[in-house]
Amino acid sequence: MACPSSRFLAVALLLAMSSFGASAYPALGGYMPVSNVLEHAEIIKDVMAFADALAGESPDYAKAKKIYMFGAGNSCKSPSSVRTLQGFAQKDLTGESFADKFIAGGFPAKFWDAVILAALDGTADFAGAERTKRVTSLKKLVLGVCNFYASHELEAAIKKVESGDSADGSGSTLAWDEGWAFYYGSEPDGAEAAWGAAVEYDADFAGNGSITVSTEIVAQFNAGLHFVRNSTASLTNAIRARDTIYKLWALTYIRAALKYVELSETSYNGKVHAEGFAWYMAIDGFVASYNASAAKAMRDALDISKPSVPSGTFCAVREQMLQALPAMGLDCKALGTFKDSTLTASCPSVCNVSARCSSQPVGLQQLR
Ligand SMILES: *[C@@H]1O[C@H](CO)[C@@H](O)[C@H](O)[C@H]1NC(C)=O
Ligand SMILES: *[C@@H]1O[C@H](CO)[C@@H](O)[C@H](O)[C@H]1NC(C)=O
Ligand SMILES: *[C@@H]1O[C@H](CO)[C@@H](O)[C@H](O)[C@H]1NC(C)=O
Ligand SMILES: *[C@@H]1O[C@H](CO)[C@@H](O)[C@H](O)[C@H]1NC(C)=O
Known about the structure:
By secondary structure, the chain is an all-alpha fold. The protein is 59% helix and 1% strand.
């Protein structure tokens, strides 16, 4: 898939305009980039084309695979080079703190590519899997990849601050902006991108002091950008923002996992199961690096090759996950409770908020 050069004319114009001030770059949601990352954000248009190929009763897996591997041409690196979802999935991020947590948690460096190809091809855990399981998993897994790759840009930004490559519009600031672009995407209100999932699970787990990830994370991204800009650079604060962003991601995907393991237990279908399986993969290795047994309990509960989620699974896995939160700098109050939960009331009460919670949510207070 070629990248039409007309796209680059527009980019060149924007770049020329930028010499008159940073306002040449429009806000992406609540985030104010100091570089042009529209082309990067448009990887989400590939995600949408991928989902379109998989729509309906007869998903076109071959077409989706082509988009995954070769791109739909929405996100270009240069007139001759296309950004692809598989490029994200195959990039070896060993040595970066987020990816290294997955590796420490037992994941191979290119685990995303393996699971996405298996779902596309109907092999491994997806051999004989029903359509909704494959399709739903695929639509969420590619967003997990975008989220994972966003971590790469935050890590790259920090490395560039260290090497003094931190002018606005290039180096560290461009990398940090790219992190937001891959997380938030190109669509109004961050629709279709990973940020949209944060909004959804914020609403599902709202109330009683739970953290609203979708707004907190905007503040963390904006703060982090400030700390990777040349005149206000601070490695310590940039790393703090990055690590807080990782914790916020953990809240979103643990919420999704808990919601869907519960729904799968109370009223099983392949779609809710696949939602839980795929969203949890975006954070599984991170959780595992802090608490291998809790991470494995959730992984096993949502194992996509299983035909059902047995009674008792939700309470058991919820208890383990709540016990694992403090090691991640989180707690049950920050996480909240699924608003439509029917099982929580019958679970053992391991969430003692007065024992676990300080007055400020753990881990976010440093930047407040
Ligand atoms: C700021 O930019 C200058 C010149 O481009 C560079 O020498 C310096 O190392 C940068 N400072 C930081 C903190 O990145
Ligand atoms: C807040 O906690 C109280 C006491 O546990 C509970 O009755 C109420 O349903 C919770 N509200 C929400 C929105 O979770
Ligand atoms: C890990 O989670 C288990 C529950 O699965 C809990 O008993 C244990 O205390 C946790 N360990 C750490 C270090 O958080
Ligand atoms: C919760 O923790 C607080 C503080 O450690 C303790 O005083 C209280 O008894 C605990 N409540 C329950 C129900 O375990």
